[in-house]
Specification:
The protein is an all-beta fold. The chain has one domain (about 5-100): Immunoglobulin-like. It has no helices and 7 strands. The protein has strands at about 5-10, 15-20, 45-50, 55-60, 70-75, 85-90, 95-100. The strands form 2 sheets. The chain has a 4-stranded antiparallel sheet, with no helix packed on it. A 3-stranded antiparallel sheet has the order 1-2-5, with no helix packed on it. A hairpin with a 2-residue loop joins β1 and β2.
């Protein structure tokens, strides 16, 4: 299982800015290792974000996203104390969900 995501959510003026740093190797499947063998693809394919259990963002990613990706987005109507949860799924079937409270 991957390391926890670092999530920061800050409310300002009826909106919240959410910043997420995900820990994932994100191999494209096109790189070769030192012996010349292709490193198998291993990357995040789906990302979802919820605010108090209601979906606010869905994204489909591919192999072109960098290692340890950073995601930032704004949620309308969020306020201090609300819960933001981020979930990702990769092409190997692994998933990770982490949560933060809007401050």
């Amino acid at each position: 299982m991957a390391d926890p995501m670092r999530i920061r959510a800050q409310a300002a003026g009826g909106n919240a800015t959410v910043r997420v740093l995900m820990s994932h190797e994100m191999e494209s499947g096109q790189r070769k290792d030192a012996t010349g063998k292709i490193v198998p693809a291993w990357h995040i394919t789906d990302v979802t974000a919820t605010l108090n259990g209601k979906p606010v963002l869905t994204a489909e990613w591919g192999p072109g996203v960098a290692k340890n990706p950073f995601l930032q987005f704004t949620v309308k109507g969020a306020k201090a104390g609300d819960k933001v949860a981020i979930t990702w799924k990769d092409n190997h079937g692994d998933t990770r969900t982490d949560e933060a409270t809007v401050s």
